[in-house]
Amino acid sequence: MQVKIFTNKPRNFGQVFGDAFTYIRQNFKSLLVTIILYNLPAVALIAYFFMSMFNFYTSLFSYSSNQTTKAIEILFISLGLFVMLTLMSAIFLTVINKHLVLNQKNGTNEYVKRSDLLPGIFREIWVMILNIILFGVVFLLIVSVVFFIIIGILSLSFSAGFFGVLFSILIGLCLYLIALPILAYIFVNVFYVSYRNKINAISALFLVIKTIKGNFWSSWGTSFISGMITYFLSAFSILPLYILFFFQLFSRSGLYTSANTDQISVTTLILGSLLFVFAILINLCLVTIFHIMCVFHHTSCEEKKEGNLILEKINQL
Hints:
- This protein has one domain (13-316).
- The longest helix has 51 residues, at 266-316.
- The chain is built from 9 helices and no strands.
- The protein is an all-alpha fold.
- Helix 4 (121-159) packs antiparallel against helix 5 (162-197).
- Mean pLDDT is 81; it is low at 252-261.
């Protein structure tokens, strides 16, 4: 008889990965299938906007149409793509975090059903969109400050000569390898804690950072390893799309409607859209693995900290 995997549980490094795959296997229909079904309309529109953008850039240097019209066209395409990506992210984060929270609340032999995720889902998606925007604005402000600091360091390095530039590049690469995994880890857990505790993303950010203290390298390692797994597997899902574009580029008659026009053929647009939808859905499933691993590690750190606090109180008594 299989043992139910709960969200909150002290885990070692290996258990985080093992329990994440077991959790997905136990909840395949209620989690992965739900994520795919709920996101399918948004994913289809993303594919449409992406192929429209691809069509636009292939005709960018054509003088067959008004350049002002082209500028307006790319503006609407970019806006539509941004809105749909935000909506897809909000749906994904709401479904997976709600599933993880309900899983913890349910009993030992009670698994989350797809119907359990539906009540209040539209309001929760709207709240998640607001949290994504709030977190995005704060994140951009922080990145802007860091960017100007790096520019200042680089300008000083250039004045220090070749070794100064080389040293700055090495430091930059190290910071990149350290910062990117931990930022991804924070991003995942900010929205999990925000949903679980019913607080805004900024308040959740402080709670996540507080938990990371004393667990930095294990958090980084979890994010880095699970991120590498996700990255390499996602490359295979995008491969058919790249093959299509490269194959079609060798034959103008295959890519365009005719040799004298800049419009992509209908066949290429339809096939490209279908492959793009397939790639996004596969990547959503892969990101689910990454998300659960990061959340399992975070809740494990929380459980261990709470356990240590209880032991300290017992010792004080």
